[in-house]
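Quick one, probably user error.
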């Protein structure tokens, strides 16, 4: 027996998670962790691995942005693009050089059914001549758009979904991912691309039949049969082509004004042929129409989280040393157990020190107190503020640096630096609170991969993007 959750489940789960992210509570933070290169052989999702990430946590910042994303498919000349289908089919949408997103409605084919590559880039722009686009922009002044247009000289038919705003491009578009958003409201003076998209969504027609799948081309055809669409909608019309005795191509019809006859209000439909034994299957657009919800139309099952760590964030976190992990936290707490809602947080403990020998503690070196009852790893020695930032893990133990007279001196054998300390300062929050929802080790893939790390500087910004992708499993 085979069972499966649907893509609708993925979208519902991600939508609810995104709503949680966008709400005022709970709090989500992105964390940078692990200041050392390491080879990890544990399961990244295990509680043990989570504890390692907590031990080496350096800083966190409130999660700023999130967007649904789909794999990026940039239009390229001489590539075959498939028409949108209610089945899992690749290359059914493209983004062009102007950041406009289109869905393929009909692939150009030869009369005998061979698919042809796309040679004309679909575009929407001011001043497009009417002999380039047919039946697309509505010039009636209503702000609404025709549903499907064809490209002269190419044979492809496309549906325009939306154009990416500059903010969407800078925050979410990568070589691998393309942002997708459903606009819930238009605003005066808002983002023009989103307001245009909302008009497109409002123009969506429910129950369109986008095309007919040739399930079986049949045999012994001499002339092309006529096609009758039966169902609970109206207005869909298609024409068949035969070659070698079989139905090899089905194309959507258009009216005298050039409007493609997808029809409307179909929840179910069947295609009956006037003669012969070919079998055609109607492909009905998502409920509400192809334009009404791009997240559904593009079959989205991934969510991108985006955050920026800009240097030291105005002296609120450290920007020295390197990090080898990125983590996502939910519901961090203060040391006292209250809600931690600050925009940034330093996760490292620090000692107020006075150097007595040598000059500077070296990043990542070990140091111990005079009685060697406590050991730590150096994250950064701030020689201006006379602070030594450090972390501890299982290799050092977690003994506290207490101000027992015999232990007030700390020494690091590697650099030969010694100091006395006058205070041991806690982190800005409880690093062992909340839940870790995601960990990414910066390095090779798979068990046993070696991290490569990213070295931080005060004059650089880390653009962190986390993609949560729900996939099918047994």
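Nope, works fine. Designed sequence:
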């Amino acid at each position: 027996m085979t069972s499966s959750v649907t893509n609708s489940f993925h979208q519902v789960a991600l939508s609810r998670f995104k709503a949680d992210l966008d709400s005022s509570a709970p709090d989500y933070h992105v964390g940078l962790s692990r200041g050392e290169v390491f080879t990890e052989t544990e399961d990244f999702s295990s509680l043990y691995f989570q504890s390692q990430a907590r031990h080496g946590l350096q800083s966190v910042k409130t999660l700023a942005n999130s967007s649904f994303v789909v794999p990026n498919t940039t239009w390229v000349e001489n590539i075959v693009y498939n028409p949108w289908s209610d089945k899992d089919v690749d290359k059914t949408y493209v983004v062009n050089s102007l950041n406009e997103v289109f869905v393929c409605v009909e692939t150009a084919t030869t009369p005998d059914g061979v698919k042809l590559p796309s040679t004309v880039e679909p575009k929407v722009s001011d001043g497009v001549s009417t002999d380039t686009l047919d039946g697309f922009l509505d010039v009636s002044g209503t702000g609404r758009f025709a549903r499907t247009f064809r490209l002269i000289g190419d044979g492809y038919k496309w549906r325009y979904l939306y154009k990416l705003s500059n903010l969407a491009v800078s925050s979410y578009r990568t070589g691998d991912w393309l942002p997708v958003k459903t606009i819930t409201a238009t605003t005066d003076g808002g983002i023009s691309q989103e307001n245009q998209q909302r008009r497109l969504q409002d123009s969506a027609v429910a129950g369109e039949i986008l095309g007919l799948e040739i399930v079986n081309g049949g045999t012994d055809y001499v002339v092309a049969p006529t096609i009758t669409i039966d169902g609970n909608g109206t207005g869909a019309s298609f024409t068949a082509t035969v070659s070698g005795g079989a139905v090899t191509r089905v194309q959507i019809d258009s009216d005298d004004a050039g409007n493609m006859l997808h029809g409307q209000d179909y929840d179910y439909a069947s295609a009956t042929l006037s003669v012969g034994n070919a079998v055609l299957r109607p492909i009905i657009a998502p409920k509400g129409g192809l334009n009404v919800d791009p997240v559904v139309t593009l079959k989205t099952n991934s969510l991108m989280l985006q955050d920026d760590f800009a240097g030291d964030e105005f002296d609120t976190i450290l920007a020295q040393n390197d990090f080898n992990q990125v983590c996502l936290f939910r519901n961090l707490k203060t040391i006292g157990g209250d809600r931690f809602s600050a925009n940034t947080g330093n996760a490292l403990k620090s000692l107020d020190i006075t150097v007595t020998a040598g000059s500077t503690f070296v990043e990542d070196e070990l140091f111990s107190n005079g009685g060697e009852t406590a050991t730590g790893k150096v994250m950064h020695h701030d020689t201006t503020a006379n602070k030594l930032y450090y972390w501890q893990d299982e290799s050092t133990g977690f003994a506290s640096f207490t101000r027992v007279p015999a232990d007030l001196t700390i020494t690091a054998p590697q650099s030969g630096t010694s100091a006395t300390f006058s205070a041991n300062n806690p982190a800005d929050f409880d690093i062992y609170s909340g839940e870790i929802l995601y960990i990414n080790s910066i390095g090779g893939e798979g068990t046993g991969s070696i991290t490569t790390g990213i070295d931080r500087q005060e004059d650089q910004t880390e653009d962190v993007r986390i993609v949560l992708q729900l996939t099918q499993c047994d």
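The chain has five helices and 30 strands.
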